[in-house]
Design brief:
- The complex is a heterotetramer, with 2 copies of chain A (about 290 residues), 1 copy of chain B (about 230 residues) and 1 copy of chain C (about 270 residues).
- Chain A is built from 12 helices and 10 strands.
- In chain A, the strands form 2 sheets. A 6-stranded mixed sheet of chain A has the order 6-7-8-3-9-10, sandwiched between helices. A 4-stranded antiparallel sheet of chain A has the order 2-1-4-5, covered by helices on one side.
- The longest helix of chain A is centred in the middle third of the chain and has 16 residues.
- Chain A is globular and about 60 Å long.
- By secondary structure, chain B is mainly α.
- Chain B is built from 6 helices and no strands.
- In chain B, helix 1 crosses helix 3, helix 1 packs across helix 4 and helix 5 runs antiparallel to helix 6.
- Chain C is built from 10 helices and 2 strands.
- Chain C is globular, with a radius of gyration of 23 Å.
- Classes of the chains: A alpha/beta (about 290), B mainly alpha (about 230), C mainly alpha (about 270).
- Chains A and C meet through helix 2, helix 3 and helix 4 of A and helix 1, helix 8 and helix 9 of C.
- Chain C: Keywords: Cell membrane, Membrane, Transmembrane, Transmembrane helix.
- Chain C: Pfam families: CbiQ.
Chain lengths: ~290, ~230, ~270, ~290
């Protein structure tokens, strides 16, 4: 990730007010650069979804501007934002509307006038990308939460966006399915697609993100690498967040003030290093932790 | 209910009273039937949320002829049955009137129209399904016929009542109203088709909701046993 | 709202006005407002002169403004009621017997012209309808959610009150479901501006809304029965009786309407 | 918790088959004893909700028996099961049916014929128990997810059940709100009410539960203390679960083969102990971890 690149998406938003008068977000200045994974973290109601929904012009700022790929988005060229910025909504049920999974993945292509055969081929490819080819003929309504999430992702990837936005991609998933979705997200990133996701799972954010933006009260209150953000107590307190487990453990046990582990792997590495130096208390009897 | 509502003050006082009494009579009969059968929680829950959905759906603008809005009364009838369908029609009319849509004084007349749509659509659908029609034609026809029945009933209500302040003879009024009914019939066909597609979609996902599953498909007059 | 219609009042906005604003009408007793709605319905039904109806409509418009409510929104919300008026009163404006306004239009069916009587009738019907529409909105936008719920519980017989209370509670949830469905489809390039080529999309979105309603009702049954539901949501909230001066206004308005009707319309001599 | 006590709830279920033919659960034998917190863990679709919904006769076994407080539950005395076993459903929205929070908490009482004034007093008390008195006049629709969960809990506590069942009580909540709900659950337990909850968050299960039941494919495949269950690899593999973070870290770093930490606190204690023995690598500069 290099900040010399020009951003793929630039959002400036003075305010977004919902019809009932609630201010969903204010004074936000947010960009997405090529080839990065950005995690928006914050508590429930911090404005994460509101920000995300601005990135593909689902919501429009009261006063502000959205620029996608150098083009300023207006009422007339929203389609541009929607093609470049794919959106996987949190509620998988409202995302999937077609009678079968394959139809659903083809939905966007058909909206853009791609002929049936080509659309079908591309949809199958997208399903294969997320390892969901076996679901092709299933009825979306009966998929499990994790399957729905994958199909939703395929339905967005098929449009070949330059940015994929995922709102709470792990919501409601068990750890096994969360890992599966997280792997697919990594894979999307490997295909040179930038990823923006929201989560209140800071462990997950630490695992996947190059950059973390912390939101509170409808505002981005800080950003940086996961390590910078999650060791910034003032910032986390402002956003009403607890640091990820590894940060807490390292701190509470008085470890790693220099290494600052943020992921579980960091913590294990730190402890293993100590172990290798012969410093930890109990040698591992089964050889685990030494490889 | 993809049609013209009767506006406040359209009718003379006597007509307002008459339609309110008839509407009250219909609803009382239904309430009596429902109470007699013992009120099941699932009926109340289905009717409550069904009415909420019908009311919410009304917010969606359907871009035909500059924009129409529908409550999908025919669909509601097919899914919930004639009794709950009628109660839903009443509740939706009460909330609509509170938002300035429809008329407070004509809740009775408007409910009669909408209840007739739900009731006719339900029985029509059951009959056609028994005749082994496919889901789409059966539901589209049932909803179209139901909504048309509502359109004719509304025309009749206007002609019988006379328009408040109009000196037009009944014969000429009938001609004016015929145009209105014609317009409503057009909307009925659109809503009928849409209902057909919706029921077809629902049948593909939850066949039990439209009485297609093997289980428990006895025609309970109160609709699905949610 | 970005995805749904501007022509139908959004219950969320209406409720937000009632809950978050404070104006003179917010402080009026809810029963008083219900009473006035009734009096207005009676008035627009029996009043027979355009000037009187226009005056009444003007008065209601002023009240709407005094309540601190937005006129611009109101104009948008008039679309459907006006459509109803036009569809009924429009043809009558031509057919109503009387002197033609200006020249007549000759058609294959004969001469067609708007008569003065037809025009007056159109005006009367518009004032009748919009008077009550405007006041109903005024009342809805100034009466708190809990008060509305309590009155529904009091005014409707069982089980309609139960249904209405659940409807009131879940309308908001269903609106969000519908809005989410529309948003998700739009973000994948769906086009809602043309119906015929997108009829299946409309059907799926409406179908999913209905399906979601039915499945929520299935969950609702469980949660209600788990707490021993037996067909009775009773509300313990209370909307007090109107204060005496408001009662006076309500009774006064009925007396005025009935009195006017008796004297001016039905020719009762005192 | 003593197993000499007779169980409050005993469920024997040969099978529960849903109307569409899916088997939701089979061969389950499950009891709840006085004064314990039981966590049902398992992946999405393992049958946790199905089992829970049998505990208050929301669902009825095809072939089997539910005994609550010594009484066998039949069609005629379901009310008994529903009074003794309070149920907080996962979907917080369908849990709240009345127009205001106070009305909603009173809902159950009024169904059982408790007079208005008494019901109001008891509802206020229940709201106070979960620290939600300030929500009394609020409209359920405008509550946050965490608030809805607390109000749902109050609506169940007000009926003074002997067991409270919570289906995925942390679903959709951010860490801060999760902690709040978890604290309230602890508090319910302190009032001598047994708690049964389902979760796929094993960290949470390790924190709150006395006993863990692991479910897979509609069956309880194992149970024990969190330590027993979460160090049983074969069991977790069968249920398609990953051990909690602390277990993974301890293992991967070759720590604590004897102490077997299961919660974050256990892990920190283990590391601190090592620290106190002067064995860890980096002393804590800010005094953290030593108290």
């Amino acid at each position: 990730m290099s900040r010399d690149d020009s951003p793929l998406v630039e959002l400036q938003c003075e305010a977004h007010t919902y019809p009932d008068g609630t201010v969903g977000m204010h004074d936000v200045d947010f960009s997405v650069y090529p080839d990065e994974v950005v995690a928006l973290v914050g508590g429930n109601g911090a404005g994460k979804s509101t920000l995300l929904e601005h990135l593909n012009a689902t919501l429009v700022p009261d006063d502000g501007e959205l620029v996608v790929d150098g083009t300023s988005i207006t009422e007339d060229n929203k389609a541009h934002a929607r093609r470049e910025v794919g959106f996987v909504f949190q509620d998988a049920d409202t995302q999937l509307v077609a009678p079968t999974v394959l139809d659903d993945v083809m939905f966007g292509l058909q909206n853009y006038g791609v002929p049936g055969d080509e659309a079908r081929a591309r949809a199958r490819e997208a399903l294969a990308t997320v390892d969901a080819s076996h679901l092709e003929d299933r009825i979306p309504h009966y998929l499990s939460g994790g399957e729905k999430r994958l199909v939703g992702l395929a339905g967005v990837l098929v449009l070949e966006p330059s940015v994929v936005v995922l709102d709470e991609p792990l919501a409601g998933l068990d750890p096994e399915r969360s890992m599966l979705v997280a792997e697919r997200i990594e894979q999307v990133h490997e295909e040179d697609i930038s990823v923006v996701l929201s989560t209140h799972d800071l462990e997950f954010a630490a695992e996947v993100a190059d950059r973390v933006c912390v939101m509170a009260d409808g505002n981005v209150v800080g950003s940086g690498t996961p390590r910078e953000a999650f060791y910034d107590d003032a910032l986390l307190t402002e956003a009403n967040l607890r640091p990820p487990s590894s940060v807490r453990v390292a701190r509470d046990a008085g470890l790693g003030s220099t290494e600052q582990p943020v992921t579980e792997a960091d913590l294990v590495a730190l402890l293993t290093e100590a172990d290798n130096l012969g410093l930890t208390q109990t040698p591992s009897p089964d050889g685990r932790g030494h490889d | 209910m993809a049609h013209i509502h009767l506006g406040e003050g359209s009718f003379p006082l006597w007509a307002l009273v008459v339609w309110t009494l008839i509407g009250t009579g219909l609803i009382s009969a239904i309430v009596y039937r429902v109470r007699k059968g013992g009120i099941e929680t699932h009926q109340i829950a289905l009717a409550g949320i069904g009415a909420a959905a019908s009311f919410a759906v009304f917010q969606l603008n359907i871009p035909v002829w500059g924009g129409i809005h529908m409550n999908l009364t025919g669909l509601v009838g097919i899914l919930t049955g004639p009794l709950l369908g009628s109660l839903i029609a009443l509740v939706v009319n009460v909330f609509s009137a509170a938002l300035g849509h429809g008329a407070v004084g004509l809740i009775g007349a408007n409910t009669l129209v909408n209840a007739s749509e739900a009731i006719v659509a339900y029985y029509m659908f059951k009959t056609l399904m028994r005749m082994d029609w496919d889901v789409f034609p059966a539901s589209a026809s049932a909803a179209t016929v139901g909504l048309s029945a509502g359109a004719f009933l509304m025309g009749a209500i206007i002609v019988v009542s006379g328009v408040n302040g109009s000196a037009l003879p009944r014969g000429d009024l009938t001609i004016a109203v015929a145009g209105l009914v014609g317009l409503n019939l057009g909307v009925a066909v659109i809503e009928g088709l849409l209902t057909g597609f919706i029921v077809q979609f629902l049948a593909s996902v939850r066949p039990d909701l439209v009485g297609l599953a093997d289980r428990d498909t006895q025609e309970e007059p109160t609709g699905v046993t949610a | 709202m970005t995805t749904l219609s501007n022509h139908v009042p959004d219950p969320r906005l209406i409720t937000a006005f009632a809950e978050r604003r404070d104006g003179p009408l917010h402080r009026v007793n809810p029963w008083t407002k219900v009473g006035v709605v009734g009096a207005l319905v009676l008035a627009v039904t029996v009043f027979d002169r355009l000037a009187l109806l226009a005056g009444l409509y003007g008065a209601v418009l002023v009240v709407y403004g005094l309540a601190g409510l937005p006129y611009r929104r109101l104009a948008g919300w008039y679309t459907l009621p006006m459509l109803f008026i036009v569809s009924v009163a429009g043809p009558l404006a031509f057919l109503e017997p009387g002197t033609p306004v200006g020249g007549a239009l000759s058609t294959p069916l004969g001469e067609l012209s708007v008569t003065w009587a037809g025009l007056v009738l159109f005006g009367e019907l518009s004032c009748r309808s919009l008077t009550v529409v405007t006041f109903a909105l005024t009342a809805s936008m100034t009466t708190k959610y809990t008060d509305v719920a309590y009155m529904l519980g009091r005014l409707l017989p069982r089980p309609i009150d139960q249904i209405a209370l659940l409807t009131y509670r879940f309308t908001f949830v269903m609106l969000e479901t519908l809005e989410d469905l529309v948003k998700a489809a739009l973000s994948r390039g769906a086009n809602f501006s043309e119906f015929w080529s997108n009829k299946r999309l409309y059907a799926r979105i409406l179908g999913m809304t209905m399906l979601s309603a039915i499945e929520q009702s299935e969950r609702l049954v469980k949660s209600m029965e788990a707490r021993g539901y037996n067909g009775d949501i009773t509300l313990y909230g209370d909307v007090s009786r109107p204060p005496i001066h408001e009662l006076f206004i309500v009774v006064g308005s009925y007396v005025a309407v009935v009195g006017y009707a008796a004297v001016a319309i039905y020719g009762v001599r005192l």
